[in-house]
Amino acid sequence: MPAAPPGRPPDSPQIGLHTLSGTDVDSLALGRLDHGVVRRLLDAETSYRRLALRAALELLRVQPGAAGPLVPVDDAWELLVAAERRDPAAARAVIDRPFTGAWAARLLRRLRGQPSGAEPAGVHAELPLWVEVGYLHALAVATAVRAGCACTLAVPARRGVVHLPSLGHAHLAGLDLWDHATVEVTDAGARVVGPLAAVHLTVPGHPDGSDRPSDADRPGDLHDAPSQLHWRATRSLASGVTIEDVDPYRQVSGTAGPDWLPAVQIAEWESRLAAARRVLRAGHPRTAAALDATITAIVPRPAAQRFRSFSATSADAVGSVELSVPSDGVDGAVMLSHELRHAVLGIVTHLGDLLDPAAAARRYRVPWRDDPRPARGMLQGMYAFFGVADFWHVQRHLARGNEAMLAHFEFALWRGAVFDTGRELLRTGALTALGRRFVTGVVTTVRSWLTEPVPAEAGRLAELATTDARALWHVHHHLVARSQVARGLAAAWLAGAQVPPVEPAAIAYRLDPDPDARAFDTRACLARLWLADRDVFRRTEREGAQRVYRGASAADCALVRGDRDRARALYLAQLNRPGQHRRALVGLGLALGADHPAGRVLQMRPELVAAVTREVVRSDGPAAAQGVVPHLAAWLAPLVAPPSPAPPDA
Amino acid sequence: MNGSAMADAALGLQLADVRELSLDKLRDSADEVLRSGVDQLLHNVDAFSAWSANDDSGGCRSRLD
Question: Nearest residue of B to residue A310 by CA position?
Answer without folding.
Answer: B61
